[in-house]
Description:
Elements: H1 3-15, H2 31-51, E1 53-57, E2 68-69, E3 72-73, H3 81-84, H4 89-92, H5 106-115, E4 120-126, H6 143-146, H7 153-164, E5 167-173, E6 182-183, E7 199-200, H8 205-223, E8 227-231, H9 240-253, E9 258-259, E10 302-305, H10 323-335, E11 339-344, H11 354-370, E12 378-379, E13 389-394, E14 397-402, E15 410-414, E16 420-425, E17 428-432, E18 435-438, E19 441-445, E20 456-462
Parallel strand pairs: 1-4, 1-11, 4-5, 5-8, 8-9, 10-11
Antiparallel strand pairs: 2-3, 6-7, 12-13, 13-14, 14-20, 15-19, 16-17, 16-20, 18-19
Helix pairs in contact: 1-9, 5-7, 5-11, 8-9, 10-11
Bound molecules: ligand H79.
The site of ligand H79 has 11 residues, from loops.
Amino acid sequence: MPRRDILILLVLTALGFGTMRRLDQTGAMSPARAAATDTQRDERMRWWREARFGMFIHWGLYAVPAGEYHGLRSKDIGEWIMSWANIPRSEYEPFARQFNPVKFDAARWVRIAKDAGMKYMVITSKHHDGFSMFDSAVSDYDIVDSTPYKKDPMRALSDECKKQGVKFCFYYSIMDWHHPSQYVKAEGKHETAGHGKTQMRDGQKDTYVKYMKAQLRELVTKYDPAVLWFDGEWVDWWTEADGKDLYQYVRGLKPSILINNRVGKGRKGMEGLNKDDQEYAGDFGTPEQQIPPTGIRGVDWESCMTMNETWGFKSYDNQWKSVETLVHNVIDTASKGGNYLLNVGPTAEGEIPPPSVERLAGIGKWMKVNGDAIYGTTAGPFKTQLAWGRATAKPGKLYLHVFNWPADGTLTVPGYTDHVTRAYLMANPKTDLTMKTNAGGLLIQVPSSAPDPIATVIVLEVAR
Ligand code: H79
């Protein structure tokens, strides 16, 4: 490691960077240090908490077989085909020769995300299959050196995100099905195929960690990502100490970067939030394919989810969620204080599938009117789930997201007694809605039918 990095690392370690809650070596924390690190942490989390909605992109060689290998199809996820179809490296590598995304248009991808109301994108720089989607100096198994495309789409995307004001972020898998340090030891599986739990060859871990660090240095210094989103950390050869070390390394490369909890072992299964037996590395929790039943105050988290049933493109997955479900998910997540990271799986030709584009446009239409009730909000104040929908909050404002419109023209906000000075529809801010209170809470007179069939937002101005 260069001297400069060691220095930065020492300083950051001394400042107590890198744990979900910040403790010093003894496990205790002086109030002064807590305040300092909280401020730094709040500072670097600020844009992310404000953003609330991002695009996940799973794009790699797996888009070539698109969920089918020698006639075999599966319900399993597309980017795991090297595992479930038991494809050895020698047969998987040639997919690179068919990966030619001539229809890839960085400006269009970023525009699609932006028009959907998404504030950041997280794209696979390297998934479990080990193929680098950027021009890596430490591997030839990358898009520039091994495909007929020969260009670097991450360069184009990073530039385009800067131009259009979308935060650009990378996913990176710790488990690697292509690196010689790792192999498969499982009944009936090829030694060099993909597998949920790769083994580490004796004495090879240091070599592999050096390789990861070299790639991460390239990713951070060449593309300036706002987040590093690790995954594939559950293999038994990866430890929390490894995670903390990698966290500090990446933060040393760019002090303002955000790093998810999958850099280490904090993640609690698919729930994704941190276990509480010790302090784990990572700036935010990562529930996968689920939205937690309630939020947790003071904990940052982001739910990632597919729009159909796969992350990487599968030609025959038509199980699309409706625009209504997706908008409800954005709202549900925000109402619990989290971010929603919604996935698209582009084709090997470089196109975001049209059903995804249509749905994103639908979400964007809603966000354009109601975005103020999502961006920069925190969880609503209600302890129990509202029968008609969800609530989000900002200082001086409460946003009611009504999924089920009241048949009798009266919306009841149960137990709500704060001083409300005004109520109006987000889509019609000039017209006041009539309110009264009774023992049940606040009663708002609303139009007889739902102004927005997906979710109507009612804004309450609250005296602080
Ligand atoms: O990149 C996408 C997927 O390929 C990857 N994560 C998303 C974002 C992924 N999805 N599912 N899996 C990986 C399967 C992993 C399942 C498990 Fe486990 C790993 C089961 C047991 C080990 C996760 C960690 C659940 C329990 C521990």
